[in-house]
Amino acid sequence: MKPSIPKGTRDFSPTEVANRTYIMNTIKSAFETFGFQPIETPSFENSSTLMGKYGEEGDRLIFKILNSGDFLSKADENYLSDKDSLKVTSQISEKALRYDLTVPFARYVVQHQNEITFPFKRYQVQPVWRADRPQKGRFREFYQCDADVVGSKSLWQEVEFIKLYDTVFSKLGLLQTTIKINNRKILSGIAEVIGAQEKLIDFTVALDKLDKIGKEKVEAEMLAKGISEKAIEKVQPLFNFTGSNLEKLASLEQMLQTSKEGTKGVEELRFVINSIEELGLQSANLQVDVTLARGLNYYTGAIFEVEAPKGVKMGSIGGGGRYDDLTGIFGLKDVSGVGVSFGLDRIYLVLEELGLFKTVDLPKPKVLFVNFGENETLYAMKAIAKLRAENIKSELFPDNAKMKKQMNYANKREIPFVVIVGSREIENQEFTLKNMISGEQNNYNLEELIKELK
RNA sequence: GUGGUUGUAGCUCAGUUGGUUAGAGCGUCGGUUUGUGGUACCGAAAGUCGUGGGUUCGAGCCCCAUCUUCCACCCCA
Predict the structure, then answer these.
(1) What pTM, to 2 d.p., does this model score?
(2) Mapped to the 3 state alphabet, what secondary structure does A201-233 carry?
(3) Is A132's CB less than 7 Å from nucleic acid strand B?
(4) Residue A4 CA, nucleotide B54 C1', distance (Å)
(5) Which residues of chain A have pLDDT under 50?
């Protein structure tokens, strides 16, 4: 049998794990600096917790777990003979793999509401699974790094999350990322102005193509989707939406003045933009983008998305937003939440493409003891125990192999020092220490050896 | 879910209009060198050509199916 792993999954080599750990630790330490605390939730949840929370498309992408035992006997004969996959699935599968970290978190908040002090700031770094078709930067098993606050409606949280994004990407050396920001209330306002709530998605999708296909074709597409000419006329400012954030806000304000909700959205966005303007960012760019319509099903206020630096072809490396009623589905009303997610695997690919990993060192021993046989090994092991007690990473070559082979091993693993102990050294109670980079070698007693390797 | 793409040794890849026993480089292992690595030279092992069918006197090469890889759409991290 040829060994293989399921599509969309990956093995990670020691180097890759070292690099991933570096990214993860950078993100976690930033989370903690901002006052977030870690929680973890199970890798699988009850299907009822997950199903219906991500829209129809999302339900299709959730990995379902087959019930144990004789599960078919409990399935309805009619559904089986009709080959009704959807209905059969709900009868033979009660559990499903986690699809994101936000919904399990909402479940957690409701379930533990009496133990939680609000506002609750939690972070979570765990894998999630999606039955998607893999492609560039898209996997079926990948890590999300989420930070959310629940129980505060303050817009300062939005400001904090933008600062958090900026902090993390600056620390990773990933400069010139673009943090796009929008507000769901502005989208609702636009829908109100064009008089077509249900056409909103078609509208933003078409508008998003503006710089690719040009104004005429975008208008043609909108007309084709059933958006009236009059409506398009009303939102003309969006077609010349190129200025600074403040200019964009001004034209949005003008355009949405008849919509109460839209005006509220502009106000919220203006607060965030002004605050960031005042506080400054280290390396990221903040950009108002009205075509940003991600996760439209549950975001109610701010919407975020982070784009990799220009020139790197990669989908978003982070996203998030404000959801006023996520815990409502689980029976806890009026708990507003806002949060962001970092896509670990995509950040990895971007850092790799830009060659930003050179600083990450593989964990490896500092010194290798050559194995010369039984007597010498015992002498070496006693020394190794002492070195390890001094926190010096040391190991013994396990077999009495040829010198050449043992030296070669040290070379391949890039172990910087080799200790040679044969009968000569034992006689003099010393150690021959060889520097594998310079080739130099000297004899030391144990005390001196520790000093040299410290 | 739709469309395209890929698969030959551990890795990267050659392989002619279908024609004897499928090759190379790197890596691995052994030797030149049984107390000294990187270099050099010599040698060896390693492939049911993704899998299953089919066409043919004959298939790595042609046809069908299936799995896999990568990519685009959709959606998303």
Answers:
(1) 0.90
(2) HHHHHHHHCHHHHCHHHHHHHHHHCCCCHHHHH
(3) yes
(4) 28
(5) none
